[in-house]
């Protein structure tokens, strides 16, 4: 096998693959040889991800679906399995965030946040389960958040749903271990994507100075961790949530000589 082609012959499905972290994960897995089914509601941006992977001679296919719909997730997983001849890796990445204080949060926003960020993982995992069982070395990687561990900004439903992702990951890992399916999660810190808002390069640089490692994260930082957890290199790792935060949950700002 060529170096770096550890996903050769493996088939992956990535949700939220039209942008940001999901796009980064789809590229990373495709570059390592995986065939990648890219799922998103944003048809236009999804086509760009798939075309970008194809331009690099990778293999990707497009699945336009809303992860909050049981029918749509089932159909999308069935289509992916049929097109790729099976499924080995499921990455539950699609997510939304609605920034607002608790006392201004309508119940509809709580429900929508939970439907897309947590319930969708249940739907996707259930739909993918028969194919992952057939794989014999299946892996699920869920995207949680640093918000599961500490208060960051006003988004109580988001943080609560992400804490649910950690428990979902742990319990699914236990129940699916007999099927040789590993279940892990990555909890990103602040990553420079649309989710953080449209920031200029200067604003990103300034924001990065507030974090221990002096920069915000990139989609590639998360994609690297996902690739590890989904790969055979992590064949003895299950049920964990790996923080990839640049240390953001450890301290709120860098320690400089003048602070000592
Ligand atoms: N960016 C960050 O700082 C950060 C930090 C922690 C966790 N995360 C998590 O990482 C994941 C990806 O976030 P991102 O920053 O790349 O966000 P993003 O907004 O750039 O991308 C999210 C993608 O999910 C898709 N999506 C949204 N709702 C969907 C639905 N109902 N069905 C299908 N697709 C849907 C969007 O169309 C988009 O392509 C999310 O789960 C997010 O909560 C992000």
The main pleated sheet reads as:
7 strands, parallel
CATH architect. name: 3-Layer(aba) Sandwich
Q: Based on DSSP secondary structure assignment, what is the total number of beta strands?
A: 7
> How would you sum up the global shape?
globular
- The total of helices stands at 7
First CA to last CA: what distance?
Answer: 51 Å
* CATH class call: Alpha Beta
One letter per element, helices H and strands E, the order comes to: EHEHEHEHEHEHHE
Supply database-style keywords:
single chain; 260 residues; alpha/beta; Rossmann fold; 7-stranded parallel β-sheet; 7 strands; 42% helix; binds nicotinamide-adenine-dinucleotide
Give a verbal description of the structure.
The chain has 260 residues and is of the alpha/beta class. It has a single domain, classed as Rossmann fold (3-Layer(aba) Sandwich). The protein contains seven helices and seven strands; from the N terminus they run βαβαβαβαβαβααβ. It has a seven-stranded parallel beta sheet with strand order 3-2-1-4-5-6-7, sandwiched between helices. Helix 5 links the parallel strand 5 and strand 6. The chain is globular and about 50 Å long. The model has no long low-confidence stretch (mean pLDDT 95). The structure holds nicotinamide-adenine-dinucleotide. The site of nicotinamide-adenine-dinucleotide (NAD) has 27 residues, from helix 1.
